[in-house]
Amino acid sequence: MAEKKNNIALKIKALQLFHQDGLIDIISGAVLLNFGLDILNKSETTSLYTWIPILLLSSLKNKTTVPRLGYDSLGGDKQQIKRWTFFPAAGMVLVMVVLGIFILGDRIDLRDANILPIPGNFQNLIGSFILAVSLFAAGLLIHLKRFYIYATVALGAGLINYFFLPIYFPFFLTAGVMLVNGARLMITFTRAYPINDERKNNEK
Q: Could you tell me the residue ranges of all domains in the chain?
């Protein structure tokens, strides 16, 4: 039992290290930024630019993260490492589909719906709530506490947004926070783990 717990703890630690490069923050931030632009442009569906960053996640991880850390420090299981990239990307796709249905397409006419006693834009609140729940779930599943901060930003912006700000505000604000923090993490990561030529050759 103790050995099993220790193995789980080591996997979680390796997973956290794998995502300490800031790439998932930068990619998620770019996706949200493009989604905000879709709202601003009054698109009925998400644009191609919204999806492109998700497609780049695996490639960037393989070129930037794995050569610096090496498979051994990540547990040595290549299939597991691929899953660590696949599931976040799949999660982003799912969230964009859900947000597209509720915000861009507005299939259930949220613009004219409001079940709250306080007047405001109910669609704005729902969009922010979906985003906040998604970010909280990501933090829980990937064991990244900084995603709880992103979720708090999204929810807080949504509450303000409910009364007087445009619907794209929470997406732009959350994207900005994620991009800035992701860039900071990336700089710290690349300095802490410079590419080792010998290791890079071994990973090929």
A: 2-203
